[in-house]
Design brief:
By secondary structure, the chain is mainly alpha-helical. The protein has 20 helices and 9 strands.
Length: 515
């Protein structure tokens, strides 16, 4: 089993072995990074090839020509460095709120890792300085909007690279300042780019991949949390366990479906509340009964998304690509974000479905017509008190917002660069939307968990050992809702709790087979 990202304190990058957990460790938890000696040697050889191309006077896209539609324009040897620096300052066109620092850290790590493969022609010193920026906490200001997800994430990556040139803006030591001041304060050098280096730094999918990898990580944790919250909702609603019988799932053996059914069985094992309620009805509503099928399909989607991200983490996505074996310089389309675009749309849809079914369980908890005897809106003094009435409103609002956000970005395209770049992926938009969706989803799960714990408090009998521990963990943060109080404080605490991963860690410790 992979280490939890928080446990990873240092990684080495070589262009081939970066994992999602390592990326999260660096981006979110501050793990340190070093560049392998083998990677430095490969980059030195590829840089030598660029110098040889220049000395021979060969025509090579982006080295001795302009970019995009301007690939028809030749550039003389004396102007090749200026071409690369012009590329960065002309391409930093992104707008909107800056990416969170964890995303920017992920972008720098990913771009450095891709360059470590040694097919891009960049000096190793620039790549090592990118990593030094990560380690020192120099975080460029990178606006979120402006990438079409083809020719790479040009605009966001250009903003990232500006700071390497002593331009742009960055946050260092908690203060926003000019890029040159940030680098100087951190004791890091700045650079003037040489031939091919600007293109090597910004022609790639690292913005969408950084956002997507972090979003995937959060969605996987949300999927695990959804199984956990469902188990507590089952106890609150005196649900039946027969829908989780392994014999059912062996007849439709989707791996995710079988995994979720097993998770629910593990979580509810030993629940006196449920043992006493198995003869109350013959079946439950879909929001309980079909959890293995729905949550399980989400797990299947996540498995696919993980496969795509794992390839992209260690992919060379710039253009042109240098091949040292025969000196070839080949212009292709590895920068095109379509693989990520489709996967990120799928990820957003999967995260939205977690919230969809969670909100339906929340509705059953608060609705006296559906809650199997629980008081209306889970308040013992209804009428004078509203209880959890408006929690369901808020959850429903986020679920409906998710439906808008889940519209796929990848079905869109718009031509650019005088129709030279005539089909684009919108992969960065898809990744950004998936990140927004999963944050909404975590908040919906927070509402369900808070309501489920409240519902359990009205039931007689002992909970399952694990759900009882989760109940106690929640109650240490949020007291029983006896009469109306400033509920926003409870909601804030629940949102912090579900994002802290304390609940999952508790379950992993108690149930080693939970996944």
């Amino acid at each position: 089993m992979c280490k939890h990202p928080e446990e990873i304190k240092e990684i080495e990058i070589d262009g081939h072995h970066l994992s999602i957990e390592q990326l999260v460790a660096v981006a979110r938890f501050g793990a340190k990074v070093r560049v392998s000696g083998e990677a430095i040697a490969r980059m030195e050889r590829s840089r030598e090839m660029v110098e040889q191309i220049i000395d021979e006077g060969r025509v090579a896209y982006g080295v001795s020509t302009g970019f995009g539609e301007f690939s028809k324009v030749s550039v003389d040897k004396e102007s090749m460095a200026l071409l690369q620096n012009n590329l960065i300052v002309s391409h930093c066109t992104a707008v909107g709120d800056p990416f969170p620092e964890e995303v920017v850290r992920g972008m720098m790590l990913l771009r450095a890792n891709a360059l470590c493969v040694g097919n891009s022609g960049i000096r190793p010193a620039l790549v090592c300085t990118l990593i030094d920026m990560v380690n020192a906490g120099v975080h460029p200001i990178v606006p979120q909007k402006g990438s079409l997800g083809a020719s790479g994430d040009l605009a966001p990556l250009a903003h990232m690279v500006l700071v390497l040139l002593g331009k742009g803006e960055a946050v260092y030591g908690g203060q926003r300042m000019g890029g040159a001041a940030a680098m100087q304060s951190a004791g890091l050098p700045t650079y003037t780019l040489l031939a091919k280096e600007g293109l090597a730094l910004i022609n790639g999918t690292q913005a969408m991949t950084a956002v997507g990898a972090l979003s995937y990580y959060d969605t996987l944790r949300a999927a695990q949390l959804a199984d956990i919250t469902c188990a507590l909702s089952m106890e609150a609603l005196t649900a039946l366990k027969n829908a989780f019988d392994p014999r059912i799932h062996q007849l439709r053996p989707h791996p995710g479906q079988m995994l979720v059914a097993k998770n629910i069985r593990l979580l509810t094992e030993g629940s006196e509340i449920l043992e006493k309620s198995q003869d109350l009805r013959v079946q439950d509503a879909y929001a309980i009964r079909c959890v293995p099928q729905v949550h399980g399909a989400i797990r299947g989607a996540l498995d696919h998304v993980r496969q795509v991200i794992e390839v992209e983490l260690n992919a060379v996505t710039d253009n042109p690509i240098l091949f040292l074996e025969d000196g070839a310089v080949i212009s292709g389309g590895n920068f095109h974000g379509e693989p990520l675009a489709l996967a990120m749309d799928y990820l957003g849809i999967a995260a939205a479905e977690i919230a969809n079914i969670s909100e339906r369980r929340l509705e059953r908890l608060v609705n006296p017509a559906l809650s199997e005897g629980l008081p209306a809106f889970l308040t013992p003094h209804g009428g004078l008190n509203s209880g959890y009435m408006i929690c369901q409103y808020a959850a429903a609002s986020m679920v409906s917002e998710n439906k808008v956000l889940a519209h796929p970005a990848s079905v869109d395209s718009i031509p650019s660069s005088a129709n030279q770049e005539d089909h684009v992926s919108m992969g960065t938009t898809a990744a950004r939307k998936s990140a927004d969706i999963v944050q909404n989803t975590l908040s919906v799960l927070a509402f369900e968990l808070m309501a489920a714990v409240q519902g359990v408090d009205f039931r007689d009998g002992e909970q399952a050992p694990v759900t009882g521990q989760i109940h106690d963990l929640v109650r240490r943060e949020v007291a029983f809702f006896d009469t109306d109080r400033e509920i926003r404080l409870d909601i804030e605490k629940m949102n912090q709790l579900v994002r802290s991963e304390k609940i999952q860690k508790l379950v992993f410790s108690a149930l080693p087979d939970f996944a």
